[in-house]
């Protein structure tokens, strides 16, 4: 039977999956909600179904059956890391292929506490702190004292601690404690907040890493026990709410001076990532996220069990037997049970790639997301530039208010860091994005912020 | 006061000439239309009871993933433009299946006319809205038409693009919250009315307008 993929996502990732399917000679079907009817992914698809919500599992599965699909690609966000959905897809009466890792891997690797405990057991460095949820403030104080002393004994003077809600994330339910005297009131405050917002009062205490870089390792595993990596990415430049804005691959600037051996650090975090991937028999693309300090200490932060927004910068610098790789195509191939047909020795890396996330947001007002209508969207094509966007260039486009106001991803290639940076600036000076807000004001984007931040690539930042 | 008595007459005449509003009934999600529970010209009723605990009339059955869902009327009226051609067919989400020709009630006429009489805060974006906690708590104690608001006071919270943005009252003068046009946490389209405010000194006049509508308009 011919394979047919239901693309359960929107925007640029839906377009990239469509492109990958076409290249592989696989049929596909797209879904969309009413707000997205003018999006390019809908205009360019032949078979499309309107659904109520991208997170409505029943709608997606009903469409999959109606369209006689054999697999579902969840993209990123929405249901991509929902293990219940992945389990339902593969275990239903008419099972489908879930283009992603096994549901067990999604479940276990997505549980931050479980992951931290397991990584510790496997000898993988994690941020020092507790690995069980704490509910009692006396216990919290004892654990904080132990952690404080242990950090002191490692030569870290006056360390800061973070009190975090287990169920929190994205900067929510987190507070810094600079003095142990503050621990109890902070614990009480975060516990009450966590109960109110997440219905789970569990708290963990971790050391605060004051200055860091955010490094990712791109992993690919197959159902045949094959594991490779596609190097590292540096995603340190983020918005105030910890959302990535510029990414660069490779993750370390090997022409720059570090206070540690960056090649050794990179090799170590890749090896640790592969160790965990093998432990889980991980059989898809995945991203292992690390924090690294200016002294060269590194800590595993989390694992993203899906294709990442920024996957293409890794692909741009990765060559399999001298041919550029496409990670989405690799993800689809391995999901259908194919072998990799290459090993780590066949993968080489060349050049530097930068991704710029173009977003309708006011960076001067706390990265306020903006809605409105794009009336002009234009850039000069270049051989070193790939622009991924769902925004049409031939007609006005109204940004739906139900989603983040992402407009485009620009992926820039250079033979070295300086060239990639120069080209990125050239692109940012060239691109035209014009539009207006519902109040008739000029629509603002983050272009100026991106220009400014290009200068900070590969630098350590305060957390 | 933005409304004159003469204007009120004109408005009432307009409503009397066409006292209906057409409500399309859409599929809430994808699925197969398994059965129609109504036919063209049938009269249907929306939810009723003190707490709207009695469901509306059944309209059609939508089946998805082996689960059948009865889609019910959310408003009173007469069925028209029934898409019987869709029986046993797969339908997408938000497909129009029928229309309900709804006779406007006295309460709805009051609500429509108040739009011209009150100071209205409209939805700045298509988003979900709730009353600010402070205003909601005062409203619970005092009731509509009694809660005073001042310029600069937070009256609404808009949930939009994963963020919460406060909306402030921006008029000078002594206003009271008189009418609420939205349901909390439901999606409101941009420019749709959210809240209606009346200047305190105009309250007696507003009451007179409402009495007048009540006299002239009785429910079907």
- Largest interchain contact: A-B, 23 and 22 residues
Q: List unreliable stretches of 5+ residues of chain B.
A: none
According to DSSP, the number of beta strands of chain A is 25
Number of domains of chain A: 3
If classified by CATH, what would the architecture of the largest domain in chain B be?
Beta Barrel
- Strand count, sense and closure of the main sheet of chain B? 4 strands, antiparallel
Share of residues in strands of chain A: 25-35%
Q: Whole-Å distance between the termini of chain A?
A: 51 Å
Overall tally of domains of chain B: 2
Please report the number of helical segments of chain A: 13
Question: What is the level 1 CATH name of the largest domain in chain B?
Answer: Mainly Beta
- CATH homologous superfamily descriptor of the largest domain in chain B: RNA polymerase II/Efflux pump adaptor protein, barrel-sandwich hybrid domain
Count of runs of 4 or more consecutive helical residues of chain B = 4
What would you report as the Rg of chain B, rounded to the nearest angstrom?
20 Å
Question: What is the name of the CATH class of the largest domain in chain A?
Answer: Alpha Beta
Annotation, overall tally of beta strands of chain B: 16
| Strand residue percentage of chain B | 35-45%
Roughly how many Å apart are the termini of chain B?
30 Å
Largest sheet of chain A: 9 strands, antiparallel
Fold and architecture overview:
The complex is a heterodimer of chains A (463) and B (220). With 463 residues, chain A is α+β, with helices and mostly antiparallel strands. Chain A has three domains: 4-99, Rossmann fold; 128-207, Dna Ligase, domain 1; 211-462, 2-Layer Sandwich (D-amino Acid Aminotransferase, Chain A, domain 1). Chain A contains 13 helices and 25 strands. In chain A, the strands form six sheets. In chain A, strands 9, 10, 11, 12, 13, 17, 21, 23 and 25 form a nine-stranded antiparallel sheet that branches. In chain A, strands 3-2-1-4-5 form a five-stranded parallel sheet, sandwiched between helices. In chain A, strands 7-6-8 form a three-stranded antiparallel sheet. In chain A, β18 and β19 (368-369) form a beta hairpin. Chain A is globular, with a radius of gyration of 22 Å. With 220 residues, chain B is α+β, with helices and mostly antiparallel strands. Chain B folds into two domains: 5-12 and 106-216, Beta Barrel (OB fold (Dihydrolipoamide Acetyltransferase, E2P)); 20-103, OB fold (Dihydrolipoamide Acetyltransferase, E2P) (Beta Barrel), CATH 2.40.50. In chain B, 22% of the residues lie in helices and 37% in strands. Chain B is built from four helices and 16 strands. In chain B, β12 and β13 form a beta hairpin. In chain B, α2 packs antiparallel against α4. Chain B is globular. The mean pLDDT of chain B is 91. The chains are: A alpha+beta (463), B alpha+beta (220).
